[in-house]
Automatic annotation (TrEMBL):
It comes from Sphingomonas pokkalii. SUPFAM superfamilies: MFS general substrate transporter. This is MFS transporter. It is found in: Cell inner membrane. Keywords: Cell membrane, Membrane, Transmembrane, Transmembrane helix. One of its GO terms (molecular function) is transmembrane transporter activity.
Amino acid sequence: MASARSTQTTLAFAAVTTLFFAWGFITSLVDPLVAAVKGVFTLTNFQAQASATAFFLAYFVVSLPAAALVSRLKAVPAILLALCTMIAGCLLMLLAANLANYWVVLLGLFVLASGITVLQVAANPLAAALGDPKGSHFRLVLSQTFNSFGTFLGPLLGAHLFLQGVEVKDGTAVTESVRAQALAGIDTAYLWICGLIAALAVFFFLSRRVVTQAAPKPAAATGLLSAFSSPWALFGALGIFLYVGAEVSIGTQMALFLNDNSVWGQSNAPFGVPLLGTLMGSDGVPGVSLQEAGKAVAFYWGGAMVGRALGSLLLTRVRADRLLALFTVIAAAMCLYVVLVGGVTAGFVALAIGLFNSIMFPVIFTLTLERSAASEEATSGLLCTAIVGGAVLPLLVGKVADLHGYAFALIVPALCYLVLCGFAVAAGRTRPVRIGGGASIH
């Protein structure tokens, strides 16, 4: 009986983990999309970052209602509804590409992210809860590893489809043929994603009984607003806000940063690096084009994938708060290297920041769930609301980049990482009120 229950739980965890891959892939497409719309619609860095803002604003608007929805419908029906919403967002992106309208792009990204928000509110605590409470950090980081695999593939596809021939440096202009090709690439990408989500919805519908039976019964909710009365829920929300803001700011600026003449724009050095040079695919023209730089962004997200795989193992031996403190300090130091030193080496250092971003989201999430006095539904809803940092901080970074350049703009994420180090230290000094975001400690 116990063995059957264990097998059922494993299958349920596998089904939920497929969702992490899907939203990672879709989210990372925003990075090459920011670079593409900057050229296609002739935008400033600040205006182009509105793409990231539209996407991540959905977390602020939808997260708390999503928590109420998950509490009312339970996880599986909420997940199916989320996938249908994501399909609607993809259809809007197809419309935007055919109308060549940036406002419809922003609307499509908002609707798509609204579905992903419901998905995250339901799936993050579900992945943490499917098994022994002591293994919650391990399970959520493992699921996030598959999420990172999706974010690794997204920029490669997006750069290939969106950035062919697109250049945004001063003195360059996007021709009508290049513009039409980029819009056609956006159309193609979101058409395939629409089909992928539809297939995923069918798969999850068929898996619904396994997940429902394996999921633990939720504790009675204390009300969604109860999270605002819990200092640790608020502190965790600040942590998620700063982490997501830093990660997204770096990712959405990365292609533009690498393409800059002060970094890789006039250098062939990246093409001499095994695997990196192969995946970037040199066009034979000296220097790194915007499309080649866009493909290199996959290594920023790929670093997070490798880091989460290694982090899953490290978390079985090292306390989560200590590992978080170490990774945030290293990430801050790398950002400061880019700001203070710059040059060709700064491109490699910036890409490597993803390796240390790796465990931050799942560890901040579970450390907060363990210490929050509010219900898991309320805390999870507030934490997902805080993902709005991905809408706010990229605008700030984009403005700093317009004024002082792409390299100096990394001073903003550097400060974010230092605050996150403070969160980790505080978590280490605070006794959890529940084990692994699950059962309460009495």
